[in-house]
Structures are given as structure tokens and as C-alpha cells.
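User: Fold this; C-alpha cells only.

Assistant: Input:
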Amino acid sequence: MKITREQVEHVAKLARLELTEDEKALFTGQLDGILAYVDKLNELNTDGIVPTSHAVPMENAFREDVVAASIGIEKALANAPDRSESFFRVPKVIE
């Protein structure tokens, strides 16, 4: 095993998790399986392979940020159910 029960208990303590004995045994086995899989991946020859963050090419879907005129206070508040000068008036929520 690459991970010990004590290491699982230590991580649980850091995460402030209270684990039962059965959970400690279960997580020890599961984490060991994860680490074994990572070791298996480390056996692959990755020389000459460029790291990527996505499996497929991604393009930015955002539009260009262009400065434009504001719609103005009157238009912004046109459908406001209640207003006070140039502000939205809302019910008091804190007493």
C-alpha cells in the first residue's frame, strides 16, 4: 500500500472529518487505488507531447469589450415599481 491508515486519519483531521473505522479502511483502499492508477499513468512516455488544458480546441465566445453610451437613469428606472430620485427603492430587509 502506498497510503497508510495514519495518513488517512491525518488528512481527515486536517479536513475536520470524523471517520468511522469502516470509513478509514474504505478510504485507505480507495486512495491507494487512485495512487496506483497515477503511478500507472507515470509509466507512459510523454516526451514531445505538448501539455493542454482541454482535449479539444477552445475558442473564446465572448464579444469584444467596446465602450458604449449608457442607457441613462430614466430608461434604467422606467419599469421600477418604486424609485426615489435616481435610485431603486426596495423594502427594508434588516431591522
